[in-house]
Design brief:
This protein is mainly alpha-helical. It is built from 7 helices and 4 strands; from the N terminus they run αββαααββααα. It folds into 4 domains: 39 residues, no CATH class; 78 residues; 36 residues, no CATH class; 60 residues. The termini are far apart. The N terminus is likely disordered. Belongs to the universal ribosomal protein uL29 family.
């Protein structure tokens, strides 16, 4: 009898362990001819409905339209007044919209066509970037309130194998740097023979900055001469062009 009861209790423990994570409840009537009565309080689900792969395409009534109506991107001030739960939901809405546009663009490219309203992707990316900025602001504020620090990785000066200083961001490693042979090899201590190479590097860096500044002034002057605008407007235009060209260089598919 003891053996029979212990086996039933073992089965009961296994069922309870499995059903706790599924949102179910086991009835208090433990033994009912060695059968358990399980009642479901909630059902785990991912979404209310499923649209298969068509969920990643636009609506069928918009397929023949050259231009699809789309609102402006979310602003940071609008996102700051929303709760964390609303931001979490909005993030997945934007992520789903971005996947939909990327799927549509890939399908059009397969057919030899192109996406006429590519600005939709730009608006989604701007909204996602603003949302990440707001979430980062909240994380920094919470960390400063609790610990006094922002919680972001610290940036410190390190030397490479040639003794040249550069900015390095702290990252987590399994092996500490004072025990890592690779770190000691790539970040050696300063030695007298490094001085001449450091001076040459600083000189080439200074000359490069001077050439860049000279070309910047030349661009501003040519912008004023060509379009007849003020110096302030020319500087603003040149800065915008440089920023856009930098973004295009850093863009990766």
């Amino acid at each position: 009898m003891a053996l029979k009861v212990s086996s039933v209790l073992c089965r009961l423990a296994n069922v309870v362990t499995q059903q706790v994570y599924r949102g179910t409840r086991v009835n208090s009537g433990i033994l009912n001819k060695s059968k358990l009565i399980v009642q479901h309080d909630s059902f785990f689900h991912t979404s209310t409905r499923r649209n298969d792969l068509m969920e990643f395409f636009d609506k069928k009534e918009d397929w023949e339209e050259d231009q699809v109506s789309c609102g402006r991107p979310w602003k940071k001030d609008e996102l700051r007044i929303k709760s964390n739960e609303d931001l979490h939901k909005l993030w997945y809405i934007l992520l789903k919209e971005r996947n939909r546009i990327m799927t549509l663009e890939a399908e059009l490219e397969r057919q030899g066509l192109y996406l006429t309203d590519g600005w939709r992707m730009e608006k989604v990316e701007v909204s996602m970037e603003n949302l990440l900025t707001v979430v980062k602001e909240r994380d920094i504020a919470l960390n400063k309130l609790e610990t006094g620090y922002s919680g972001e990785p610290c940036v410190y000066n390190a030397r490479n194998a040639l003794g040249i200083k550069y900015k390095r961001v702290e990252t987590e490693h399994l092996v500490p740097k004072y025990m890592s042979r690779r770190y000691k090899l790539l970040h050696s201590k300063y030695e007298p023979w490094m001085a001449q190479w450091i001076l040459k590097y600083e000189e080439s860096k200074r000359l490069k900055e001077e050439r860049r500044e000279k070309y910047y002034r030349y661009q501003v002057k040519m912008m004023q001469k060509k379009h007849g605008i003020s110096e302030k407007e020319a500087i603003k235009s040149v800065n915008y062009i440089r920023q856009r060209s930098k973004e295009l260089r850093n863009f990766s598919v």
